[in-house]
Amino acid sequence: MAQRVGMEHVGPFVFNGVRFALGACALLPLAIRSTGRIVPRECSPTPAWLGYLCAGTALTAGASLQQIGMLHTTAGNAGFITCLYVILVPLFAALLGNRTPLGTVLGALCAVAGMYLLSINEQFHINPGDLLELIGAFFWAGHVLVAAWFAPRMNPIHLAVGQYAVCSVLSLIFAVWTGESFALEGLMDAAVPILYGGLLSVGLAYTLQLVAQRDANPSHAAIILSLESVFAALGGWLLIGETLTPRGLVGCALMLAGMLLSELWPRKNGLAPEGGSCT
Questions:
Q1: How far apart, in whole angstroms, are the C-alpha atoms of residue 131 and residue 83?
Q2: What are the pLDDT tens digits along the chain (279 aa)?
Q3: Residue 27: which residues within 8 A CB-CB, separation 6 or more?
Q4: Rounded Cα gap, residues 233 and 227, in angstroms
Q5: Which letter, b or e, does each residue of 193-226 get, where b requires 16 or more Cβ atoms within 10 Å of its Cβ?
Q6: Is 0.85 topped by the overall pTM?
């Protein structure tokens, strides 16, 4: 919702460029303090710049396509189609030669079914922005897998700041290239959604994702991340009196069931970071 409101005043690339810059700046003091405190588990750490570039590029592509797509589709369609990365992550993992447990596959299917019931009503229509959201889902899946590879091999706080900086710079370059306005008035009008998107969505949520993905299976991470829509729906119902229909409640239950299936189904860990201990 904050993303849509923000784009009433500024363009999608400006919105992303500013909010990711804000997220990077907010996290920078913590990154400085954490230097050397989170020791990479690999004996030969991955070059930091490579992690920043790969994660930042995937994040830029996913976030940009999501923002632009929102200009041409509904919020419900955008949320549902973007969260198709829940299915794409285990598929990509399988293509990379990693075994995906049956519980994770069933959990992902439950999560997608629940997302559909929660986000899409009976009047579902394909809009021009839906294709952009679908392409973006592939990049979001790629970002989850990139984070799963780099987070255990380097300081995740540094990775977070680096990817936000790359995303901000690339977004602002595209903003200049496409002729978006940097007018102060528009930025001031969009200040609240930018602050929310920069400090909470970027600075807090995305950073916690990277820290968690030092140990979390990426397919599980994708399913858990999709629960964002459940908490948004429940929060709207409890705090601002929005209606949560029986269809929506079933959707929430299916998504929660998907998370539990992926976590509790007997399995071997998939896509665990390889490499021996340095001790």
A1: 13
A2: 556 666 678 889 999 999 999 999 988 888 888 765 544 444 446 688 898 999 999 999 999 998 888 787 766 666 667 777 777 777 777 777 777 677 667 777 777 777 777 666 666 566 677 778 778 888 988 888 888 888 888 888 889 999 999 999 999 999 999 988 888 888 888 888 888 878 877 877 777 777 766 766 666 666 666 666 666 556 555 655 556 677 767 776 777 677 666 666 655 444 444 433 333
A3: 157, 160, 161, 164, 203, 207
A4: 10
A5: bbbbbbbebbbeebbebbbbbbebbbbbbbbbbb
A6: no
